[in-house]
Amino acid sequence: MVLSFFTKSSGGLEHVVSKAVGMLGDARHSFDLATLALLTDTDVAAVDADIRETDQRINHTEQELRSELVVHVTVQGSTDIGSVLGMILLIKKIERIGDQAKNVLDLAQSGVDLAHEPDTAEMLAERGIISTLFGEAAELLADPDDARLDDISRRGGALLDKHQAKIEEYLHSDRPGREVVPRAIYYRFLKRIVANLLGIVRTANEPLPTVDYLDDGETDTDD
C-alpha cells in the first residue's frame, strides 16, 4: 500500500499525505464553484479569480511535494522508490482535477449556460454525488481501508459508465448542436474528474504497475 509508508514513516513524511489531502480539498472547492457557474445563475466572473488562485495553490503544492519526494529518494536511496513514485503519481492526478475544474469554468465563460434547463436538476444532483466522492477520497487517503476502497471503486466505475453513455447519447442525438455539444463536453470533463479520483484512491492502495488499469491490466481507465 503506497500510503502505508508515508503514514508510518519515521522520516517525517506523514505531512506529505496531509498536504495531498489539502490539495484534494482545494480541487473539490474549484469543482464546486466551476459547476455552480455552469449549472446555476452564479456569476461566472465572481468565481473566476477564486478558482484560478486555488489552481495556482494546487500547482505550487504539487511542485513543493515533488521536490521533497525527490530529495527523500536521493537521501534515503532506492528502498522507498515504489512508494515515492506512487505518491508523485497521486499528487499529479489531484493537479489534473484542478485543471479539469478550470475547463468547466472555461465552458461557462464561453457562454454556455445550463441553468434552468429540463436536465439541470439531474446535472446538479450528479454534481453533488461527485463532490461527495471528493470527500470520501480524501478520507480514504487519510485512513486507507480496503472495504471503503472497493465501495468507492464500484460507485465510481458506475459513474464512468453513465458519463460515457451520456457522451454517446449526445454524439448520436438529433437535437441541435448548440444543445448537445456543450453537454457532451461537460460530461467528458466529469468523466476525467471521476477517473482521476478513482486513480487517486487506487494509487493509495494498489501496486504501482496496475494503477489506472482494471482486469489484471487489460482495461485502461485513464485513456
From TrEMBL:
Transmembrane segments: none annotated. Residues 23-106 form the PhoU domain. Pfam families: PhoU. This is PhoU domain-containing protein. The lineage of its organism: Bacteria, Bacillati, Actinomycetota, Acidimicrobiia, Acidimicrobiales.
